[in-house]
Amino acid sequence: MGKLMEYSKFVLIIIFISLFIILFRHTRLRTIEKHVEPITDQTTSKHDSYFSTYLEEINKTRLLCGQLCNTSRKGTPGIFFDKITATINCKALFQNEYVDSFHGLAHAPRKIPSILLNDYTMNGLIKVHTAYFNQPYLGSTARIPIWTKSLLKEYVAQAKKGKLFGTYGISETNALRDGLQHAPGVKGGRVLVIGSEKPWVEACLLEIGAKSIVTLEYGRIKSEHEQITTMVPSEYRRTYLDNTLGLFDAVVSFSSIEHSGL
Ligand SMILES: *[C@@H]1O[C@H](CO)[C@@H](O)[C@H](O)[C@H]1NC(C)=O
Ligand SMILES: *[C@@H]1O[C@H](CO)[C@@H](O)[C@H](O)[C@H]1NC(C)=O
Q1: Integer-rounded Cα radius of gyration of the chain
Q2: Pocket lining: 123 vs ligand 2, CB cutoff 6 Å
Q3: CA 72 / ligand 1 centre spacing (Å)
Q4: 3-class SS at 144?
């Protein structure tokens, strides 16, 4: 019960920070490779038969995910988003190896396999635009694989001056800093960062006074900073299941969860 309450607190914090991002995001600075031809429901792909073997796993996952993964449910209006309450079986989800497995192909498919299109678009709820990334970080290293003390020191100093570029530009970094100032649990807390290619979010957290930070990232990162430890998803799952993960006072994620696994 205590854990559940902690969990809902974290969800609220994540939502709060996501809203912040949405409110302050004007430009997306990451360059993406654009493709012109639209994807339609009729798209066929040579990957269909490959991914059809995954459908059973997806179905099993959906089943144990329960109400949380039922996208047909209607929420009640919240401050920014509709609000939906769901019972979460954390243990069942963490026990499922499929949740953080890799697709196993040399390159991410250029087109959404039609067999998965409904799941990708929440049954057509999400409009499809084409943009292609091939970032197979799982099982590989992150963009900056070693986080040195001096790198963090420099980032924190830049953040203090309001001049840290981060991944999305100075104004995005400053918007996040502003949000973190108001988020409960950050100052003096143990904070989880979900998704991180370079430690700009971590630097903002250190600047504001987080006591310790755990970064969860698909790509492997070696942190030489004593307040930052890093984990890949399999380690996160394992430590959750053997009860050594511990609790967090806050969770921060910037532009990661919404495209994880796509
Ligand atoms: C998965 O579930 C969907 C919808 O519930 C169903 O149509 C489909 O046949 C299932 N596929 C497998 C492989 O179990
Ligand atoms: C999903 O939610 C809808 C709307 O509340 C409900 O009618 C449906 O039975 C749910 N599906 C499952 C599989 O629980």
Answers
A1: 19
A2: no
A3: 16
A4: strand
How would you write the pLDDT of the chain (262 residues) with one tens digit per residue?
Answer: 455 555 555 555 555 555 444 444 433 333 333 333 444 444 455 677 778 877 888 888 888 998 988 878 999 999 888 999 999 999 999 998 887 777 778 888 888 888 888 888 888 888 999 888 777 666 666 677 899 999 999 999 999 999 999 999 999 999 999 999 999 999 999 999 999 889 999 999 999 999 999 999 988 999 999 999 999 999 999 999 999 999 999 999 998 887 776 5
Q: Tell me, what amino acid is at 30? A: R
CATH number for the domain running over 141-259: 3.40.50
Three-class secondary structure of residue 48 per DSSP: helix
CB burial of residue 111 (10 Å; 0-12, 13-18, 19+):
middle
Nearest by Cα to 251 from 185, 174, 187, 181: 185
Q: In the chain, what are the domain boundaries?
A: 44-124, 141-259
Q: Is 178 in the pocket of ligand 1 (CB under 6 A)?
A: no
Specify the ligand 1 atom closest to the Cα of 55.
13
